[in-house]
Structure formats: structure tokens, C-alpha cells
């Protein structure tokens, strides 16, 4: 039997005869420390690609055959982690902004005071530090995927623009503590949705330890959202509405 025939028969046997468990083991062993799709999808993709390569191997030159084999291995690695990296860069912008928002709230409580059921300087400092910790975890996630934290991505650029608006709102002249809390509430709503998405992406694409770490962050962020929501609710009647002259209604 020629070398080409050996290759074709070997690929067919690999595709058709190996068990699901053996293929799954091959999948994870061949691309250790890479981003993988769910095991079932990787196993099915491997079987399909090996079968196709086997069917075409007798008419392909050696160079083309090697390229097809390389393509099969790329399938094992799953889709490009570009989506994951893009969302991490988005989260990086918002976590950086969140720490800045809590610092702004801290300044306002020192300058303007607070109200019953409102934020205390001590608690705001704790939240500020937690957001800095989350910022560090996002950076670690990017480095795990081989991306520098300074990387610019489409979602990261959009998030930067959105975050500038949040910062401008909290720093606006005449902005009250309640104004700043409402801005922070918007930020926390976005944060919770963003971390929930990262948990899903880590579950599909990332190492298991990233998924667990992100779940823990989401739990903390859920607490932030509940706390800021309560502060806004308690301050709704504590913050007097600005006085304005009534405008006549014209018909």
C-alpha cells in the first residue's frame, strides 16, 4: 500500500472508528492551552474534516494536503477568540470608568454630604476598590488570550465614547449627588449585562477558571446594582426638584 493510501485509510479509520471519548481526548490533547469550542462541537467538526480530507487526499498534492490538515487543526481550536477579546476590551473601558464614577461620588459626598439611606464615603471607597480589582481581572483575561490590554477593538472604541459621556455627566457643573448616582446606576446596568455576556463567552470559549472568576465578579456586580438602585430610590424625595417658572400652555 502506498503512502497516500496509508494516509487515506488512516484518516478514515480515525474519523469513523474512534469513539466519542477518544476523539474528545484527541481534541483537547492536540490543542492544549488554546481556546476551545464545546467538546461535542469539536468532536463533530473533527470527524467531518477528517472524512473530507480522507476523500480528497488521493488527488491532492502534498502541499495542499498539509494545508487541509492545518485547517482541520484550526477547527479544533474553535472560532477566533476575536469576539471574546473585543468584549473584554469593552469591559475594560467600563470597569475603568466605574472606578472613576465611584471616586466622583466619593468627592461629592465629602463636598455635599449624603442623606438617610444614601451612600457613605466608606462604602463608596470599597466599591471603588472592587471596580479596580475587576479591572485587573479583565486585564488578566486579555493576557490569557494573548491580547495586550492596550489593544483597540470596535466594541472597546464604542465603549470609550459611551464612558466619556458618563464621566462628563457626573463632572458637569451643578451636578448633585443624586445626578451622579443616576449616572452610576446606568453604568451598573451596563456592567451587569456586560459581565453576564462575558460569563457566557467564557463558558463557550474560555478556560474553565476564567468562567468561574467571571461568575464571581458578576455576583459582586449584581450587589453593586442592587445597592445603587436602593440609594437612588431612597434619595428620590431627599433631592429637591429644581425650581422653575411655570410655562404657559398655548393652544
TrEMBL record:
InterPro entries reported in the protein's UniProt record: Ferritin-like, Ferritin-like_SF
Descriptive protein name: Ferritin-like domain-containing protein
Species this protein is from: Corallococcus terminator
Amino acid at each position: 500500500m502506498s503512502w497516500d493510501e496509508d494516509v487515506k485509510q488512516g484518516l478514515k479509520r480515525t474519523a469513523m472508528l474512534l469513539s466519542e471519548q477518544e476523539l474528545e481526548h484527541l481534541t483537547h490533547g492536540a490543542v492544549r492551552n488554546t481556546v476551545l469550542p464545546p467538546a461535542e462541537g469539536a468532536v463533530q467538526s473533527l470527524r467531518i474534516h477528517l472524512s473530507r480530507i480522507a476523500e480528497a487526499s488521493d488527488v491532492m498534492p502534498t502541499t495542499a494536503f498539509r494545508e487541509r490538515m492545518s485547517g482541520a487543526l484550526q477547527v479544533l481550536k474553535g472560532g477566533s477568540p476575536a469576539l471574546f477579546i473585543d468584549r473584554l476590551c469593552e469591559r475594560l473601558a467600563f470597569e475603568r470608568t466605574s472606578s472613576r464614577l465611584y471616586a466622583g461620588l466619593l468627592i461629592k459626598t465629602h463636598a455635599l454630604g449624603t442623606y438617610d439611606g444614601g451612600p457613605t464615603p466608606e462604602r463608596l471607597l470599597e466599591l471603588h476598590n472592587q471596580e479596580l480589582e475587576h479591572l485587573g481581572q479583565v486585564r488578566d483575561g486579555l493576557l490569557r488570550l494573548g491580547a495586550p490590554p492596550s489593544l483597540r477593538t470596535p466594541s472597546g472604541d464604542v465603549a470609550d465614547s459611551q464612558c466619556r459621556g458618563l464621566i462628563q455627566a457626573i463632572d458637569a457643573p451643578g451636578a448633585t449627588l443624586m445626578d451622579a448616582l443616576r449616572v452610576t446606576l446606568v453604568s451598573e446596568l451596563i456592567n451587569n449585562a456586560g459581565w453576564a455576556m462575558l460569563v457566557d463567552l467564557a463558558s463557550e470559549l474560555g478556560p474553565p477558571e476564567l468562567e468561574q472568576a467571571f461568575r464571581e465578579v458578576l455576583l459582586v456586580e449584581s450587589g453593586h446594582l442592587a445597592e445603587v438602585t436602593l440609594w437612588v430610590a431612597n434619595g428620590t424625595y431627599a433631592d429637591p426638584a429644581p425650581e422653575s417658572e411655570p410655562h404657559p400652555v398655548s393652544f
